[in-house]
Amino acid sequence: QCNQCDKAFSHKSNLIRHLRTHTGEKPHQCNQCDKAFSDKHHLITHLRTHTGEKTHQCNQCDKAFSDKHNLTMHLGTHTREKTHQCNQCDKACSQKNSLKMHQR
């Protein structure tokens, strides 16, 4: 159990990883740049930005992504309504951020 916030964990390794959220410790250093991470899996995902590796493939189109979160966000483009309309052209987007990027 965490002595900072009382969150309980079934494995000691999970508690140790959680404690880093309180201490700010980031022991997993990227050997390609200055970034460091509290979780080893976040480092592994980050390393893909240097290699260009894209292991998460969309099953609806040919796009691929370096991390699962970006794939999940992308999948919404296939299923969501495009409610964000550009005021300069006919383009419509399912995500507000996509519309902002389009309008730049």
CATH third-level topology of the domain at 56-103: Double Stranded RNA Binding Domain
Instruction: Give the N-terminus to C-terminus distance in angstroms.
Output: 48 Å
What shape does the CA trace take?
elongated
Largest beta sheet, briefly? 2 strands, antiparallel
Lateral arrangement of strands in the main beta sheet: 1-2
CATH class categorisation of the domain at 56-103: Alpha Beta
Which regions are unreliable across 5 or more consecutive residues at pLDDT < 50? none
- Secondary structural class: alpha+beta
Report the mean per-residue pLDDT as an integer: 91
What's the CATH architecture of the domain at 56-103?
A: 2-Layer Sandwich
Number of helices: 4
What share of residues are in beta strands? 5-15%
- Rg over CA atoms, rounded to whole Å, is 19 Å
Tell me how many strands there are: 6
Helix content: 40-55%
Order of helices and strands: HEEHEEHEEH
Textual characterization of the structure:
It holds the Pfam family zf-C2H2. By secondary structure, this protein is of the alpha+beta class. It contains four helices and six strands. Strands 1-2 form a two-stranded antiparallel ribbon. A two-stranded antiparallel sheet has the order 3-4. Strands 5-6 form a two-stranded antiparallel sheet. The termini are far apart.
Give the key terms.
104 residues, two-stranded antiparallel sheet, Double Stranded RNA Binding Domain
Question: Secondary-structure blueprint of this entry?
Answer:
Blueprint: H1 12-23, E1 28-29, E2 36-37, H2 40-51, E3 56-57, E4 64-65, H3 68-79, E5 84-85, E6 92-93, H4 96-103
Antiparallel strand pairs: 1-2, 3-4, 5-6
